[in-house]
Structures are given as C-alpha cells and as structure tokens.
Amino acid sequence: MSMRLGSQASPVMPNLTRYGRRCKPGLSQRYHRLSPGLQHLPPRSGLTRTLGRTQTPRCTMSVLSGSCNCGAVIFKLTQAPTEATTCHCTQCRKQSGHYFASANLPKSALQLSGAEHITWYQSSEKVRRGFCSKCGCWLFWEPVFRDWTSVALGSLNGHTNLALERHIFVAHKGDYYSIADGLPQNEN
Ligand SMILES: [Zn+2]
Ligand SMILES: [Zn+2]
Fold first, then answer.
1. Residue 7's domain spans which residues?
2. Would you say residue 5 has pLDDT above 90?
3. Rounded to the nearest whole angstrom, what is the distance from the C-alpha of residue 34 to the centroid of ligand 1?
4. Which residues surround ligand 2, an ion (CB under 5 A)?
5. Which of 14, 58, 62, 106 is the most exposed place for a label (fewest CB within 10 A)?
C-alpha cells in the first residue's frame, strides 16, 4: 500500500479486514474507559452496580489504532494492550532515540495493514524490532518465539486510556535525564 499524507493528517484505515463481532463504538469506548477503575470503587456505589452489569461486555473490541508517520503501516488492536512500560536498555535507547514506551498484546490481537513495509531488525536471538521501512518509525518489539508483541505507545492514535506502570532496565538509562514520576523501577 502506498499513501501520501500531510504531516498533520491522520492516516485513514483502508484495506483492514473486518474482525470479530461488530459492536457499537460507544459501548466499547465506555467499557474501556470505565473498567480499569472498577476495583477501586466503593462496593455499593451506583457506578459499581452499573458496571457490574457490564463486566461481561457484549464486545471486547478495542478502539485503539496506530500508525507510523508516513501511513504505510497502520494497525488496529482488537484488545487493549497491558503492562505499559518504558525500557531504558541500551538497545531501546538507540533504537528509539531516547527510551521506549510500549505495551503488550497477543499477536492475534494485532491487525496490520502494510505489513510488507515493516523491516524487522533481529536484535538478538529471541527478539526482533519492527520499524517502517519508509519513514523509520519504530512500532513493535517482539519476542520471536512467543505469542505476544509489544506495540510502541507513541504510535497509537488519540486517547489510549493507558498509563505507564513501570520502568525497566533503568541501570542502563542515559545520564542526561531523570525518572521522577514515582513509578516502580527495575534495575534490569
Ligand atoms: Zn511509515
Ligand atoms: Zn529495551
């Protein structure tokens, strides 16, 4: 696929195969917005009762989508990614130009268009890193022999309803910045 887009344009989403059951976007957005705080609500609040009826959602389709800068690679996530972390290891810092923020989801939950434009850099025996061969955006960190992938949070469009949970490999972070957000830090 080849697309010409202005720098401010959001890539459109052509040629994506339809997946799963269709559902109303409003329902899906409401579920994903409200469900993360469910466990923190007072047990007898009206909201809890309301949410209780939606804990088995009629549709778990995520509304998240993402792309590279040039629009050659676009994708949708059919479920919300988890374990949002930043990695400060040397490879991630060089690959990203700073450090890498990503979250995980099953490979089967990633719906790609323009996969032929992804170049995979095999950074170790077990890991490869996928970036757009046209514009260079780093999009995926992927364990080759596992069934999940990690998607770059910066590649996602619009409001994600995600929040970073942890910093990893902070022993290898650059000396030109501080981590001061109070999140847990793993040395490696
Ligand atoms: Zn691109
Ligand atoms: Zn890393």
1. 1-58
2. no
3. 33
4. 87, 89, 92
5. 14
